[in-house]
Amino acid sequence: RPVVEMTGITVDIGGTTVLHEVDLRLFAGEVHALMGGNGAGKSSLVKALSGAYRIDVGEVRIDGETVVLAGPAEAEAAGVAAAFQDVDLCGNLSIAENVMIGHEERRWYGISWAATRRRAASVLDELGLGDLDPRQAVATLPPAIQQLVAIARAMVTHPKVLVLDEPTSSLDVDEVATLFRALRRLREHGVAILFVSHFLEQVYAISDRITVLRDGHGQGEYATRELDRAVLISKMIGKDLVELRR
Ligand code: ADP
Ligand code: MG
Ligand code: MG
């Protein structure tokens, strides 16, 4: 059974329908790629799942229970965590502070700072960052490590689902490898990861399943290893293979 089952998701923004009855299923211990060209609706679907966009029509089930993702707090309470490097981090604060920021009061009220630091350290360790000095300022870290700090911040609440919208856009090849190592560790721990990307190489390297969007419409869900690259491209751009080869 999927951890997340979004069915018939329709989202209207300012009178324009940006998602038309889209389906998405996420399984524990899998990386699920959400693919599509620019403007396909990937970020809108991510925002619907993380409570930032209102779902006008459709149903979301998490662990089989229907949930209403009325806002980011409700989505987080339902087990959905999103990590955004540019919005979640304060460069002048330390790694430990960034991982714990905002979590202390809500989750750790009455628990010592030492305990919160231990939790931050264990999440960083889970992501393969155990050797970093948690007192280091985030601004001094390379982009990939900053991305991992944002993910660590999201993982503090023990989410079922981790949502990453184009997490590799500011990373070089080696940094992508660092990120993917961390994602594989999370996958081993049973987290369902939604990986938004339009890079074919990355999607084939990391994902177990792929959902394709085009112009706000779902183009189906596929097992990555069974989906031919040329077929994937044709689904993304809406031209059949015969047309593509002409
Ligand atoms: P992607 O992430 O695949 O590039 P988006 O979800 O960002 O696609 O956008 C899908 C479509 O929805 C685009 O046409 C975009 O202009 C529109 N859209 C998304 N969010 C908004 C918004 N807040 N206001 C206006 N249009 C939006
Ligand atoms: Mg876009
Ligand atoms: Mg986007």
From TrEMBL:
The organism sits in which domain of life?
A: Bacteria
The residues covered by the ABC transporter domain are 4-240
What is this protein's record name? Sugar ABC transporter ATP-binding protein
Organism annotation: Agromyces salentinus
